[in-house]
Amino acid sequence: MNDSIRMIDPKKLKSIYKIMKKDFPSGEYPPYRVLRRQIKEGVQRGYLFLVDKKTAAYAICAAHPRGGCVLVSYLAVMDGMRERGIGSAFLREIKSIYRGENLFVEVERPQDARTQEENASRERRIKFYRKAGFEMARDIRYSIWNIPMHLMIFAPDRLKNSEICRVLYEIYLPLLGRRLMRMMEISCP
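The structure corresponding to this sequence follows.
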């Protein structure tokens, strides 16, 4: 497998955004114009994972303004290319790009799934991230856009829960703005 990674050109984001709308439930991604502006301004970074020069996966990441922590907001493998190790290879590349930094991912809670199929899909995501070295954040209640989530962390620095809560707030503030920060709820003991 001949693979490579490259940044998403903001001018070509529209084609990825159309796929994103199919990969993620409505309400879990920003409007196109907002995402395009954020990528153009560097608030978020988009990555494509190419296999044999064909787009196989994409990810959108938001780094903490002072560095050290990154939220992998969206990561998906293209339909028809799943179950081939592409997601794992792509995640290794992302971890390499952000080497030494704490990475966060949000995973919908399996216990809130409406169907067995949805539950199984969420369980597979959790297993995927665990296999990649991510751990479940313990004792943190977290939701975004009124969707309860599990927060998983790949943390070389072993952050305390209070630090995790502060960092996520600081990552989301430039993404949502003060007016929409109420759409994120996080509580740490």
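The longest strand covers residues 54-63.
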